Amino acid sequence: MTRSPSKKSWEVIAQEAQDYRDSTINTLSPAPPDVPNKLPKSTFFLPCTLLDPAITAITSLAPEKLLSALASGQLTAVAVTEAYLQAAAVAHRLVNCLTELLPDLALPRARDLDAYFQQHGKPIGPLHGLPISVKEHLGFKGLRCTTGYVSHWGNIAKEDAHVLQILSEAGAVFHCRTTVPQTMMHLETDSNLYGVTVNPHNSSLTSGGSSGGEGALVALRGSPLGIGSDVGGSIRNPAANCGVYGLKPTAFRIPTDGWGYLMAGADHVESVLGPLSTSLSGLRVFMKAIIDSQPWLTEPALFPMPWRKVELPSTVKIGVIWHDGMVAPHPPIKRALRLMAEKLKKAGFEVVDFPPYLHDEAWAIISSLYYPDGGEYDAGAIDSSGEPWRPLSTWIIKENPCVKKLDVGKLTYWLEEREAYRKEYAQHWNRLGVDAVLCPVGPGVAPRHNTAKYWCYTSQWNLLDYPGVVFPVCKVDTGLDPLEDDFEPMSGHDADNHKLYDAAEFHGVPVGLQLVGRRFEDEKVLRIAEILEAKIGFPFDDS
């Protein structure tokens, strides 16, 4: 990654970033349709009314159906790429989710794929012609990689990230890049470079973070499959907030070489790349295409583990975490858990309670390991340009009592605590003997902007390095999800979270849950989720 110094003010650089992004959208021909000057609170259904039916006929297809149509010649790569370029442009104008549209890369690539298909009568690879959107911090050769910092506007990637190389060889078409927050450590997507990415279902609420640009874009069908990253919930949180599917894999299965940002000492909390998609099958498409390429042959840090066929027991045992012992979920999350548990039992699954095991200690450990340099690198990246600190950057670094500069002894202490906790949790799981755990993704649905300060329903599994699949279950209903009259807080955090609930404001917003498996059981947890989808279906009606 090369960086060129700049003496420009942060405001000038931010305007330059936004002007460049807009110019990439304005090069589309034909021009994307205009959106209303005054947008409704929910923009979720607007693409269907703004885009040509021929385009929405393509963008309404799930990734696996798109691939089938492309492989059979029913659809051309150019037609699919053009449709998603238009859809992504419209989605951006509705929710502010793009840093860059890539027609100059995507369309020539699509034409080459069509020429290959014409010549050989077959697709070039398993992802032939599939548009894939990319979170901005993944390196594209010759393109900027800011990771949300104004001071990084001059960072130019020298090569494509390893995961992009693999997906390209499999036939993918990269059509756009998506927004990220300042510091990459928000459950919100907001930066001084690009502003705030809002939720398609309610613009007063966050799309989530840090892969919130991906979550919002996929929800609006501006992409069938996107690449996010996750070190504390950054794939699962936006997937749940926006009502799409997401997978946080086990670390060291998906390549991370060539992404643009790594916190100082961040290998103490493994950050992973993973997919967000319009379908559950899309998650499998992504994982299998990458792992089948044997990426460990060129990125030695990866585990040499092929994608495996899973044999499940005759009766699958699901544990349910109703709350984490610190913060009770809001009424819609509780209802979604009850609905899922009931349907699981009726479908023949064994369902048991899964008591949380010292989840408060888990947060103390992981939040102490997030910034072993005491946040110096991030503070320097922010302050060097003069850009303002975003509220959630201040919260996670300056207001977090666990952020301290660690000497070797203190760092060793927290690493030993991490390993001891992982061992104790494995024993806890063994005692309960479950195949997977069903639990909340967060203490509520998509919250208002700058209020997403409770990570523990997702960061718990980052500390353990357990894979998790997120899927939409239902939507908030004011009639079904009233605030409890008999609420008694378990903690100060619980009392704070309780105050955030507003049934009227959240009405109609998606409610997602996550299914968690043990380390390296990515195939198993995804397979169980697929069986759940086949047997009970989701999302389902609230009734």
TrEMBL record:
Instruction: Tell me the keywords, alphabetical order.
Output: Hydrolase
Looking at its record, which EC class is this enzyme? hydrolase
Gene3D superfamilies for the chain: Amidase signature (AS) domain
User: A single Gene Ontology molecular function, please?
Assistant: amidase activity
Q: In the Enzyme Commission scheme, what number(s) does this protein have?
A: 3.5.1.4
Among InterPro entries, the record links this protein to:
Amidase_CS, Amidase_dom, AS_sf
Q: Which residues does the UniProt record annotate as the domain Amidase?
A: 80-526
Q: Which domain of life is it from?
A: Eukaryota
Ligand binding (substrate):
184, 210, 231-234
Which SUPFAM superfamilies is this protein grouped with?
Amidase signature (AS) enzymes (SSF75304)
Whether Flavoprotein counts among this entry's keywords is no
Q: Which reaction does it catalyse?
A: a monocarboxylic acid amide + H2O = a monocarboxylate + NH4(+)
Residues forming the catalytic site: 135 (charge relay system), 210 (charge relay system), 234 (acyl-ester intermediate)
Is Transcription included in the keywords of this UniProt record?
no
A Pfam short name: Amidase
Similarity section? Belongs to the amidase family.
**Protein's UniProt name:** amidase
